[in-house]
Structure formats: C-alpha cells, structure tokens
Amino acid sequence: MSALMATPCSFDITSTVDLQEVDNALNQARKEVAQRYDFKGSKASIEFDAKDSKLVLVADDSFKLTALWEIVQTRLIRRNVPVKNLVRADPQPAANSTVRQEITLQQGIPSEKAKDIVKFLKESKLKKVQASIQGDLVRVSGKDRDTLQTVIALLRKSDFGIDMQFTNYRSN
Questions:
Q1: Tens digit of each residue's pLDDT (9 = 90 or more) over 93-114
Q2: Which of 100, 75, 58 shows the shortest CA–CA distance to 22?
Q3: CA–CA–CA angle 50, 52, 55 (5° rounding)
Q4: How many H helices and E strands in the chain?
Q5: Quick check: pTM over 0.90?
C-alpha cells in the first residue's frame, strides 16, 4: 500500500502586456492627436512594433513629446494596460528637427526583479513557501491555499516596479 503524497499548491507570478489592447489604445491616441488643436500641422506620430514590443513617439519638440506621452498613457490606462511595464528611454533629437522617444513594453519579469521577489518572500518568513525563478516568471509553492493567498496579499502590498499577474493557480 503506497501512501499518497500531498502535492503542494502553487501559482506563477508573471508580468505581461496584452499587445492587442496596446494597439487599440494607440489607435485611440492617434485619433485624439489628429483632432487636437495643439497638434494641428505638427509632426507628431505614434509607431508601434508589436514584434519587438516597442513604441516610438515623435514630436516637434520636448513639450509636444510630453503631451503626446500623456495622451498615450491615458489611453493605455483606460484600456487596463499596466503602464508600470513601460520603460521610457531618454528623448533623442531626430530628423527634420523633431524629438523621438522609444518606449519598450516589458514582457515577463526581468531577472533582477525576479530575484527581488524571491528575496522578499524568503525574508517574509512564511512557513513552507518556496519561490523559484523559471525563465521570465516566478513560481511560488506552498503547503496550502491559505498560505498562498497570504503570499499574494503580501505581494500586492509591495511595489517591485512592475505589474504582476498571478496565474496558473494549482491546488492539491
């Protein structure tokens, strides 16, 4: 007679951006820019490369670039795209005396943030909770669901500079 081993509960912490929602938000932002008086006759543009998860904003000057970013950011927030996952590069001078800024959409948890999450969970001294980095996600396992709910609550209260989703929840 074999004793049944209790399998631990687990879930994954991921950080992803829905590229279709980004595209929808950017289309709305482009329409708004086309209708705004302060952008009439200006060289403002919003480009999106879904394959590389990159946005490129181009405007006449840094003032208009900031206004363009605010429009894009507002549209992304309205479509529930986490703006924490956007990494803005410094504005660069571009052709035709314009200013250009690249914005990278971060997909997955970067390794240094994953290490911070694992370290945070170890320091929280929760009993029988293990966290392991698996590629661009962190898998957390524990002895029961209540413990994992506590872990999720702790992580939601903490700010690691990225938007976290809790997925692939498995219980014994």
A1: 888 888 999 999 888 888 888 9
A2: 75
A3: 65
A4: 4, 9
A5: no
